[in-house]
Write a structure and sequence with these properties.
The chain is of the alpha+beta class. It is built from eight helices and 16 strands. The strands form three sheets. Strands 5, 6, 7, 8, 9, 10, 13, 14, 15 and 16 form a ten-stranded mixed sheet that branches. A four-stranded antiparallel sheet has the order 1-4-2-3. Strands 11-12 form a two-stranded antiparallel sheet. Strand 15 (303-311) and strand 16 form a beta hairpin. The longest helix has 12 residues, at 161-172. It is globular and about 65 Å long. It starts with 6 loop residues before the first strand and ends with a helix.
Length: 352
């Protein structure tokens, strides 16, 4: 379909992924009558990637929304963001997290316990804190992907919406290699393997932002369950501690919510400190304690985004970014006699 000369393009960024088109428009451009949006979609004036869509269409990062000029006085031809000043305490959280930066993007070692994005009652989150790295008052780095609140490690951000969309596409088309480290209870049956249970989100009857949970679909019902999504996680045992616990290298091939946590719990090897998926009643192949491993091991999630490797969208150079473990995992490694200094960058290449 031919693009109207009276349209201007807006690129969807990661923060707005999976929103309905009509709600995205109202959030971006202000109050617009629903009837107006429906009419523009029906006539093919309001387009997504030059295609006619319905108001209920869910936008994804990287999509180009072609908006008629005049739909709102608040158009986004120029990128502008006015953020609130950070407190000293907030600056201290983010100050020393920067582990990579160039002209186009940066990466931080996300602390455990800090949400990637804000929600109701969530005042401190990475999307706010990264304004610390802004070069001026009207722009801030854009999220490209996310990590769970309790997960630490490499988090990549772009310095423009356009690059954020390109990088988000790289994550979506699986051209980014991600390696996680985890301490798990018990050990998998095989030294290296894949877990491919589809995942479905559990309905939030409590209507609270902090409720987010998925469930593995372990039978052929996947085709009859709404919103069930295929998911694949690769794992390799880096070091086993008898049958009680193991240090795992993980590589999520898909990027579903809580994918690694749900998959490992499903094979009875829950991640240590994962009280959401590794319940005390769950039998694992270690001591049968669910996700707990004794008093000397802190009851915090032992899941860390160790490294990311991808081709730079602008320079075309191969980028490898690695992050040190958080303090509670460093302590656990020491208690258990594990030594991260001798770990290879990609444990999947090392294993025969």
């Amino acid at each position: 379909m031919k693009k109207s000369t009276e349209n201007f393009p807006i690129t969807v960024t990661f923060e707005d992924e999976d929103k309905r088109l009509d709600r995205w428009l109202k959030a971006k451009l202000g109050p617009i009558p629903q009837s107006r949006i429906e009419l523009l979609c029906r006539k093919g004036v309001l387009l997504v990637n030059s295609e006619k869509v319905k108001p209920s269409f869910r936008v994804m990062s990287g999509d180009t929304i072609e908006v008629p000029i005049g739909l709102s006085s608040r158009n986004e031809k120029t990128e502008s963001y006015k953020f609130e000043a950070l407190s000293k305490a907030e600056e201290n959280i983010i100050r020393d997290t920067l582990i990579y930066e160039d002209e186009y993007l940066l990466a931080i070692n996300k602390p455990s316990g800090i949400a990637t994005q804000g929600g109701t009652g969530q005042k401190v989150h990475i999307d706010k804190l990264v304004s610390f790295f802004s070069s001026d008052y009207h722009t801030k780095p854009k999220l490209v992907h996310r990590l769970d609140r309790e997960t630490s490690g490499v988090l990549v951000l772009a310095k423009s919406s356009k690059l954020a969309a390109e990088l988000a596409n790289c994550f979506r088309d699986r051209s980014v290699k991600k390696i996680y480290w985890a301490l798990a209870a018990g050990i998998p049956n095989d030294k290296e393997g894949s877990i491919e249970f589809p995942l479905v989100k559990i309905k939030n009857n409590l209507k609270t932002d902090d409720f987010e949970r998925v469930q593995c679909v372990t039978d052929d019902r996947v085709h009859s369950i709404d919103n069930a999504k295929k998911a694949k996680s690769n794992y390799v045992i880096i070091e086993a501690l008898g049958t009680r616990a193991c240090w795992l290298g993980l590589s999520p091939i898909t990027g579903r919510t809580h994918q690694l946590r749900a998959h490992l719990a499903q094979i009875n090897c829950p991640i240590i400190g994962d009280m959401k998926y590794g319940k005390n009643s769950q039998v694992n192949k270690g001591d049968g304690w669910g996700s707990l491993l004794g008093e000397q091991i802190e009851n915090k999630l032992h899941l860390h985004s160790r490294s990311i490797m991808f081709t730079h969208p602008i320079t075309k150079k191969q980028i490898f970014i690695e992050a040190d473990m958080p303090s509670h995992m460093i302590k656990s490694w020491k208690v258990l006699g594990l030594d991260a200094r001798y770990a290879v960058a990609d444990p999947f290449l090392q294993n025969d």
